[in-house]
Amino acid sequence: MATLEINDLHVTVEAEGGAREILKGVDLTVKQGETHAIMGPNGSGKSTLAYSIAGHPKYTITGGTVTLDGEDVLEMTVDERARAGLFLAMQYPVEVPGVSVSNFLRTSATAMRGEAPKLRTWVKEVKGAMEQLHMDASFAERNVNEGFSGGEKKRHEILQLELLKPKVAILDETDSGLDVDALRVVSEGVNRVRESGEVGTLLITHYTRILRYIKPDFVHVFAQGRIAESGGAELADKLENEGYEAYVKGGVSA
Ligand code: ADP
Ligand code: MG
Ligand code: MG
């Protein structure tokens, strides 16, 4: 079983007046096959955690470790992280000019599998996955993220997840900006991947509503740069009723 282990992670960003510590000792273990939800108020550092694991250059690791099966993730290039089996949906949030979805997916699959998938079976795989996500076939020929709506971006994210079958996937605010129908389609995709038992998922969200469609094994409350409480799916219900106030001393950390 592949295991992503985050141990006492401290991260700073450059801000006006110097470096500011955003992550203040995050501890978390995600195993293949498990679904974890990280929930917390805006500005608590959830995206910083995702970007830090992704290797975004804006974030400086000042302490702690991140390992995948004992291998030091923080020492890996972004490509090496993908090859090791980490999927970070926010890795390519920008437009990739002149690269079609189809080519982009095949390149990503090649990077993760270590060899290019056979073209004919690949085309079928992509077609099947797109149908399940209720995506029009023409989508494959569009350029990555160019003029994508919020919903299309999220579907593209789940399409990658389904095709690449990583060991551990980190999905940041996959539910934001989705209408109820799109939310259901996206959740079904996450659940399909989950049922394979091969993927560990870290679902980062501000809202509880996606958890009506995806039942996490573990829920973690993120507040002021660290995990303030962990529990099972019932913790999400408590958050839905009571909000985050109890976890935030003196207002949201921002
Ligand atoms: P969340 O995803 O929980 O809403 P973020 O991780 O986006 O929180 O932000 C946490 C804090 O770190 C905020 O105060 C935010 O302004 C700050 N921050 C995050 N990224 C940057 C950055 N690249 N530059 C400056 N400040 C940042
Ligand atoms: Mg510490
Ligand atoms: Mg965020």
Automatic annotation (TrEMBL):
Q: Which SUPFAM superfamilies match?
A: P-loop containing nucleoside triphosphate hydrolases
Per UniProt, what is the name of the gene that codes for the protein in this document?
A: sufC
- Can the keyword DNA damage be found in this entry's annotation? no
Name of one Pfam family that matches = ABC_tran
Annotated family: Belongs to the ABC transporter superfamily. Ycf16 family.
Q: Which UniProt keywords apply?
A: ATP-binding, Nucleotide-binding
The segment(s) forming the ABC transporter domain are: 4-249
What protein name is recorded for this chain? Fe-S cluster assembly ATPase SufC
